[in-house]
Amino acid sequence: MIRVLVGATTIVMRAGLEALIASSPTLEVVGSVNPRSLAQTLESLQPDVVLLEWDEPDEDLLALLSTTAIDTVAIDDFEGPSAPASVLLISDWQPSAIADVLRTGVRAVLPSDARVSEILAAIEAAAIGLTVLHPDVTEALLMELSTAPRLLPTAPELALTSREIEVLGMLAEGVGNKTIARRLGISEHTVKFHIGSIFSKLNASSRTEAVILGARQGLILI
Predict the structure, then answer these.
(1) 106: pLDDT confidence band, cut at 50, 70 and 90?
(2) Number of domains forming the structure of the chain
(3) Is the pTM of this model over 0.85?
């Protein structure tokens, strides 16, 4: 069973999300809290996934998501108790707000009016380390990328190699290190080396941010 912690600002919303999760035989609700109480609850309940209603930008919540997200390694590469994956239901569709959320390393972002089947699928995907972006989220990000100023040419020593671009493309797919290693016929250690190099060259702090920056530079398509 996948252990899910619900976070929403109103009792009605929390009850609705609890009922939604209860409809799946593979999920169980381990707690339901106001997002402002999330930090105190995570350690005691140790959920696999946090399903969080995001009704407005919140710097404190962004900071919490950043510190709890395990995004520099995939779930299948992480040893020991892992940080929970975050699935956000977001109502603020400003592209900048979405970009801020993705930079924290959350695993899935969906609109607050997403279908039940979409939310359940996102929870299950996030629990195994996959990244899920709803088509509406992707469209908003592409709008931001199309209006972003062009970046200056990259210095040769900071340019990604062809192999690093391959790895970056697979990060955009949301796959883990084991899958990348298998596809490319290289070791997981080498994959981690490439990811570290990508982060350094793009000045990224998470896989999701690396993908956003890579797309902005025209290195990959999302």
Answers:
(1) confident
(2) 2
(3) no
Residue owning tokens 């929403």: 8
DSSP-derived secondary structure letter, 69 = -
The residue from 97, 124, 145 where one domain ends is 145
Structural domain contains residue 222: no
| CA triple 22-91-32, angle to 5 deg | 35
Q: At what angle do helices 207-216 and 135-147 cross, to 10 degrees?
A: 50
Cα–Cα distance between 29 and 19 in angstroms, integer?
9
Give the rounded distance of the alpha carbon of 63 from its chain centre. Answer: 14
> One-letter amino acid identity for 194?
H
Q: How far apart are CA 93 and CA 106, in angstroms?
A: 16
From the number of C-beta atoms within 10 Å of its C-beta (0-12, 13-18, 19+), residue 211 rates as: buried
Domain interval for residue 98: 2-145
Please check whether residue 129 is in contact with residue 75, taking contact to mean a CB–CB distance below 8 angstroms.
yes
The residue among 176, 168, 179 whose CA lies nearest residue 209 is 168
118 and 14: one domain? yes
Token couple for 106: 């959350």
Same domain, 67 and 90: yes
Q: Facing residues of 132 across strands?
A: 108
By three-state DSSP, how is residue 11 classified?
Answer: helix
For the stretch 41-72, pLDDT in tens is 887 888 999 999 877 666 666 666 665 554 43
The CA-to-CA distance between both ends of the chain, in Å, stands at: 32
For range 25-35, the mean pLDDT: 94
One-letter amino acid of 119: I
